[in-house]
Amino acid sequence: MDYRFLGASGLKISEITYGNWLTHGSQVESDTATACVRAALESGISTFDTADAYANGAAEEVLGAALTGERRESLEIFTKVYWPIGPAGPNDTGLSRKHIMEGINGSLRRLQMDYVDLYQAHRYDHHTPLEETIQAFADVVRSGKALYIGVSEWNAEQLRAGQALAKQAGFSIVSNQPQYSALWRVIEVEVIPASKELGISQIVWSPMAQGVLSGKYQPGQPAPEGSRATDEKGGKNFISRLMEEPVLTAVQRLRPIADELGLKMSQLAIAWVLQNDNISAALVGASRPEQITENVAAGGVRIPAEQMAEIDAALGAVVVR
Ligand code: NDP
Prior knowledge:
The model has no long low-confidence stretch (mean pLDDT 97). With 321 residues, this protein is of the alpha/beta class. α1 (30-42) links the parallel β3 (16-19) and β4 (47-49). The strands form two sheets. Strands 3-4-5-6-7-8-9-10 form an eight-stranded parallel β-barrel, surrounded by six helices. Helices cover 38% and strands 14% of the residues. The chain has a single domain (3-210, 275-301), classed as NADP-dependent oxidoreductase domain (TIM Barrel, Alpha-Beta Barrel). α2 crosses α3 (97-111). Bound molecules: NADPH dihydro-nicotinamide-adenine-dinucleotide phosphate (NDP). NADPH dihydro-nicotinamide-adenine-dinucleotide phosphate is lined by residues 19-21, 23, 49, 152-153, 177, 205-211, 214, 216, 227-228, 266, 283-287, 291, 294-295.
């Protein structure tokens, strides 16, 4: 496993990071979740990403329980704040000072930890003054409850404004967490160039397009049993926009490219996002431990320029830019 710096900070994280959206506390039972966490640790993954809102708080509880007894200094724990957990009162959403302060306390309680390494704004809040949000994050850092601050799905303008205020408040935003995969490349035009100027790196979600880029969904065929596309608890709904025939057909054209490189398609997908030097980590999910073992083998793989061009040609018009 290779470790990369998070933005311009001194924090190193595993370039393949394990995320538990839709799985822990929902799609998979606790024993499978624990087995996935064990497999991640054994594979050299030290960085774990969750959020307060995942499975209404249960994802943080499951992750915290699975990591009980691990050496805290050897882990990087990332969580997020923005969305409400369960029934929402008027102050349970967004990035107000109140919600951030309640949010970090709730996350630490569920994770059974004294601090998180990275506390992230899950989205931009258009209804709270940015100054209030940044000042609250500064206070969270000063209190020692989070060591670093990141954001998720902020655009270039929001990153610039947030970073300027953060510097005034005495800290830096170190990371942004956007969707990025060979199929979804929206951040390439503005977010990555702005981030490079600002000392912000990306930790990217759904690098495998929720499993679609593993090639396991064949056009015109039923989805494999136990896969996200059959998960009635939520997964099926989230993956549905990627399950269209033209996308699945284009993805199958990646198989010979992966074969040529001696890689599984899942590994090709992860290695593809890690080619970009503004990406600190691919945030990979897994519903079973074997997937983690397979996925971490993508670490350190360089895809030659010729195959990068072949990937572009194979996916063609289905790529969202
Ligand atoms: P991926 O694109 O990595 O998809 C993971 C899913 O793909 C797994 O749960 C599994 O689903 C399937 N899979 C994994 N490995 C393999 C394999 N080797 N072969 C075949 N199928 C495989 O990422 P996710 O969509 O899960 O997102 C990853 C993380 O990103 C989240 O856990 C979360 O931490 C973060 N995230 C952040 C968001 C944000 O707004 N900031 C939004 C979404 C995610 P199955 O077996 O069930 O088919």
